[in-house]
Amino acid sequence: MSVIIGLTGQSGAGKSTVCEAFESEGFAVIDCDSVARHVTRPGSQCNRELAEVFPGCFDEGFTLDRAKMASIVFADSEKLRLLENIEYRYITEEIDEQIGKLSKKADYIVLDAPTLFEAGVDKLCSCTVAVISREQLRLERIISRDGISEEQARKRFGSQRTEQFFKEKCGFLIENNGDAAAAKEQAREIAKKIRKIHNATRQHETDG
After folding, report:
1. Domain boundaries along the sequence of the chain
2. pTM here?
3. CATH code of the region 3-207
4. pLDDT digit string, tens, across residues 134-176
């Protein structure tokens, strides 16, 4: 049975950089953002259900207008919860399916999941890792990466969990304040610790 590691944190903290380090340690990675895009592909059942609640966010063929949806939900926490309640059911089903496939060839699987706790997939994880970073750095990364305005980026930040939340909820913490190499080294050390803990637990079960 594979060990599942939940990787989370706020937008722009640098989870992709950390994933590269976990992959270099032989850990498989499930990109939950890619999963979300897959379940909301044109014509999907998820889109059809969402269109009943957000009809103005879909073009012909149940194609999601992501910019329009973002402008609505990041400004209204209640509508964001409505979106999440529908979307997360489909995302969780897809994650379960991918874990099943990867478990046949990978001992360790990382769920790169910005909304790990909101979606409830933390329950699948043996441990959790949070990536944090200074707000100004995260802001600059998001504006550059997504081509959005500072106002739009701050609205996105406002809908997310605080840094303190991740510090309290996650077993491991990675600080990524501009030095990608340092962040990757932190991730590799955590990967080694996780492998050591798991091996010790497995040995204890065998001896017992």
Report:
1. 3-207
2. 0.89
3. 3.40.50.300
4. 999 999 999 998 898 998 888 888 878 899 999 999 999 999 9
